[in-house]
Write a structure and sequence with these properties.
The protein has 270 residues and is of the alpha+beta class. Helix content is 37%, strand content 21%. The strands form four sheets. It has a four-stranded mixed β-sheet. Strands 2-6-4-5 form a four-stranded antiparallel β-sheet. The protein has a three-stranded antiparallel β-sheet with strand order 8-10-9. It is globular. The two termini are 30 Å apart. The C terminus is likely disordered.
Length: 270
Amino acid sequence: MDSPIDPNQNHLLAALLDTEFDRLAPYLELVPMLLGDVLYESGGKLQYVYFPVTAIVSLHYLLENGGSSEIAGVGNEGLVGISLFMGGDTTPSRAIVQTGGHGYRLKAHILLEEFNRAGPVLRLLLRYTQALITQMSQTAVCNRHHSVEQQLCRWLLLTLDRMSGNDLTITQELIANMLGVRREGVTEAAGRLQNYGFISYRRGHIHVINRVGLEEHVCECYGVVKKEFARLLSDVLQRQGKAIPVASAPIVRKTGYAQNSVQSNIQGCI
């Protein structure tokens, strides 16, 4: 059955040449990705990689005391699971769905076989990885040197870049967990952004009213990340309007941060 969600909505899949895409297409599985779903736990062996389409995945680093903070986000510009082709079978971070939606998953060994052909897929994925590392590095610098207000602006803009609208369903507590700050700090920062007329918010919902205002108020980190993605991935080819038949497979969800079990299954980046 044809799916209304086209794999080409993921920019990395859309950037593949026809030959490479046609080899992978029969193995792409459409899966629901619900808010709170854990795709990987820290130290877990990678069985699949994920190409988000309408979902956004947050990568968290966990501390021994149970604390965590977001080190990067992945939406329709990329994939979750770069550790697979960087030489390791496990990942040091937890991957948890931040914004519910759908994505495509691919068995790890299939992508690894394609990567090991040492052709266009290898070059594309390595460039994407460099862009993702830039995002991680800039996040660390931002969290150390910039105010919670600026961090919140950066996080909101990067999230909006992966979405089709201006409404975010997320609590301030979850945002605080993403940024690794106290909830009260997020409440104060969000209140100031609302007073400026940039956003409106109520419990569990943020609506961006003035994106230009956020862009003028954000620190340099947002622009650095966006420019690096554009620099590294601006020359890739994009296929348009090429949907494929796919099989859907549900993700079995567990509450909290317990790991999920998964049943049988750029030009315009962030």
